[in-house]
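[audit] Reproducing an earlier prediction to check determinism. Same input, same settings, fresh worker. If the tokens differ from the archived copy the diff job will pick it up downstream; this log only records the rerun itself.
[audit] input (132 residues):
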Amino acid sequence: MDLINTKEIERLIEKHKNEISKLEQLLSLSSSFDGSNRKRSATTAKPVRAKKGKKTKRAKRGSVTNSILDTLGAASKPMAAGDIRTILVDKGVVEKGSTTVYAMLSQMSKKGTVKKAKSANGIVYTATPSKK
């Protein structure tokens, strides 16, 4: 009795090769339908019209989140959302009238990336330690 059944292994390899081939075909079909949208959203920023008619570019995916985490990490005490937004506006990460920071803080709080707490001055946020 062989411990390793080579014929069974060869059969499984062939089966998986066929499945991979089918998946590659599906992937090529799906990219032909919406490939231009997928590539643009992943690599470049989409221009949007600002309130005053000037064209601006959206921040790249994750840059606002990373900037919020960097700001909270550098802070010596918990920060209010308005203070975080002011710092990011000064850095040029978000526009002056943008509500992106408030929305991102809400999402990050739900995910557990930042900790939300009530204080005498309102709601403040702190970065949670990373789980590395």
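[audit] rerun output stored. Observation attached for the diff report: The radius of gyration is 24 Å.
[audit] end
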